[in-house]
């Protein structure tokens, strides 16, 4: 059994994909299964913290002791995160939030014609960028799923989004999305750890240990 090294802390985790509807039955989304975020929620609960999990649509059970808030769109995930963040000690943003959404959502199902169809897209709000300027921020951990230049891209996001830590993983060759195992490169200002490939359950426990270590170190600095 894990020690309760996060006892008395409140931790917010975002997980899964978002859905961006363009009519009542059709949406844009991505390959996120939510497995990593749910494994993190379970590991944080094991470590003794109060866990709130803001989740996009996934086919996973809520881990024991975890409070889940279900959302669909990037905007709903943003609103739920902003509503919760003030009382949190740590935020782990594991969700694969859509970067673009259709500019219009039709009220009725769009009928097909013989013509092609072009969807116009607009940017969604970047949740972490919204939080960057908060006066009283929690310890924030972001994720970066990359298909190229993993460390350079992750380091740029760490800086741009004002994060305390970022966990980066490759999404290539069956690794990352949907799989039951993964590997992570964890970066923070001035440091780096490689967590080698293992089950998402084990990986989540290792990452939570690392987060707790730097969270406590920052608090006592
Ligand atoms: O820029 P990119 O989407 O790759 O950054 C990934 C990180 O940013 C993840 O932690 C993800 O949850 C977060 N994110 C966000 N809001 C968005 C898009 C991504 O908070 N709209």
UniProtKB/TrEMBL annotation:
Catalyzes two steps in the biosynthesis of coenzyme A. In the first step cysteine is conjugated to 4'-phosphopantothenate to form 4-phosphopantothenoylcysteine, in the latter compound is decarboxylated to form 4'-phosphopantotheine. Catalyzes two sequential steps in the biosynthesis of coenzyme A. In the first step cysteine is conjugated to 4'-phosphopantothenate to form 4-phosphopantothenoylcysteine. In the second step the latter compound is decarboxylated to form 4'-phosphopantotheine. It comes from the Bacteria. Its cofactor is FMN; Mg(2+). The lineage of its organism: Bacteria, Pseudomonadati, Pseudomonadota, Gammaproteobacteria, Chromatiales. In the N-terminal section; belongs to the HFCD (homo-oligomeric flavin containing Cys decarboxylase) superfamily. In the C-terminal section; belongs to the PPC synthetase family. Pathway: Cofactor biosynthesis; coenzyme A biosynthesis; CoA from (R)-pantothenate: step 3/5; Cofactor biosynthesis; coenzyme A biosynthesis; CoA from (R)-pantothenate: step 2/5. Binds 1 FMN per subunit. Residues 6-213 form the DNA/pantothenate metabolism flavoprotein C-terminal domain. GO terms for biological process: coenzyme A biosynthetic process; pantothenate catabolic process. Keywords: Decarboxylase, Flavoprotein, FMN, Ligase, Lyase, Magnesium, Metal-binding, Multifunctional enzyme. This is Coenzyme A biosynthesis bifunctional protein CoaBC. GO terms for cellular component: phosphopantothenoylcysteine decarboxylase complex. One of its GO terms (molecular function) is phosphopantothenoylcysteine decarboxylase activity. Transmembrane segments: none annotated. Its EC number is 4.1.1.36, 6.3.2.5. Residues 11-221 are annotated as: Phosphopantothenate--cysteine ligase. It catalyses: N-[(R)-4-phosphopantothenoyl]-L-cysteine + H(+) = (R)-4'-phosphopantetheine + CO2; (R)-4'-phosphopantothenate + L-cysteine + CTP = N-[(R)-4-phosphopantothenoyl]-L-cysteine + CMP + diphosphate + H(+). It comes from Nitrosococcus oceani (strain ATCC 19707 / BCRC 17464 / JCM 30415 / NCIMB 11848 / C-107). The chain holds residues 183 to 403 of 403 of the full protein. CTP binds at residues 99, 109, 143, 157, 161.
